[in-house]
Write a structure and sequence with these properties.
It contains 13 helices and no strands. 45% of the residues are buried. The protein has one domain: Orthogonal Bundle (Tetracycline Repressor, domain 2), CATH 1.10.357. Helix 3 packs antiparallel against helix 5, helix 7 runs antiparallel to helix 8 and helix 8 runs antiparallel to helix 11. One of its GO terms (cellular component) is plasma membrane.
Length: 289
């Protein structure tokens, strides 16, 4: 049963969001002292928030998933998990998220913002029913992670987490458009909204490319605004090349490698950005110290 719940929320895909929150924390710890409860709070909040959002999405979309051949094998349509069980799991994750914000006390902002943030995350599940720009609702949900981590640690806001959030917004929006190309025909027939379904795959790929160009510009903006060093600059260039490679994998007449672009390349980008960011900060601190 536990294994089914991990599969339901695709727990391994937490790698797409958690590294950005941790990188924001590393940047924030240049401004304030490190507190271990803050680190535990960030990890727990990210895991519970994403788990709640994914489980809720599977509940809301269970009939759509059952009708789509690509998703008919998911846990609820396939009968591996019952609706009441997933509702209970979602409730536990919601409670876990809110309670985890208490680790940031005496900073009350995480607790105050926990409910509106969670409502925004869960709201994404309905976006595809009324707007083709649903990909950027998901992107906005994930871009909250570095901003939330910064606020939780410092109680303030600053340019570095905002620029990191911009990188996430355009990066996630772009790769979610690529992923949605697989369901363009089904979405159009089912009356669901997505950029590939509304504008066609060729136009969707162009929009995704523009989105990723904006992500690259934001990445170099972060390097400049956060006064990062040559290690981060090399990483930014490497990530730019990976995004070019990602788009080379997907063509309007060949979507067979979408999953490679979505899972493998994006996992490398997410984890790589955390590693190079932390390494750059540590190296400069060691040199100056």
């Amino acid at each position: 049963m536990f294994r089914h719940f991990l599969g339901l929320i695709r727990f391994s895909h937490t790698v797409f969001a958690l590294p950005f929150a941790l990188l924001s924390a590393v940047l924030a710890w240049q401004e304030v002292p490190v507190r271990w409860p803050d680190l535990f709070g960030i990890v727990l909040c990210m895991v519970f928030a994403r788990s709640a959002a994914m489980a809720f999405n599977r509940l809301v979309d269970r009939r759509i998933d059952a009708a789509n051949p690509r998703t008919a094998g998911r846990h609820i349509p396939a009968g591996l998990l019952s609706v009441p069980a997933v509702i209970s799991f979602t409730g536990i994750c919601v409670a876990g998220f809110v309670l985890s914000t208490l680790l940031f006390l005496p900073n009350w902002w995480p607790l105050i913002l926990s409910v509106p943030v969670l409502a925004f995350l869960l709201g994404y599940s309905f976006a595809k029913r009324w707007t083709m720009w649903c990909h950027y609702w998901l992107a906005a949900a994930l871009m909250l992670s570095p901003i939330a981590a910064w606020i939780a640690i410092t109680g303030t806001i600053a340019w570095p987490p905002v620029l990191l959030a911009a990188v996430i917004f355009f990066w996630v929006g772009g790769f979610d458009i690529l992923y949605a190309c697989q369901d363009a025909e089904f979405d159009a027939e089912a009356g669901l909204n997505s950029i590939p379904a509304r504008l066609g795959i060729r136009s969707a790929l162009r929009i995704a490319a523009i989105s990723h160009l904006c992500a690259v510009l934001g990445l170099f903006g972060l390097w400049y605004a956060a006064d990062l060093g040559w290690l981060f600059l090399i990483g930014a260039i490497a990530i730019s090349l990976l995004l070019i490679y990602e788009h080379a994998l997907v063509r309007p007449d060949d979507l067979s490698r979408v999953n490679v672009a979505f899972f493998q390349v994006n996992a490398v980008i997410s984890l790589g950005l955390l590693v190079i960011g932390a390494a750059d900060i540590w190296f400069r601190a060691a040199v100056s110290g």
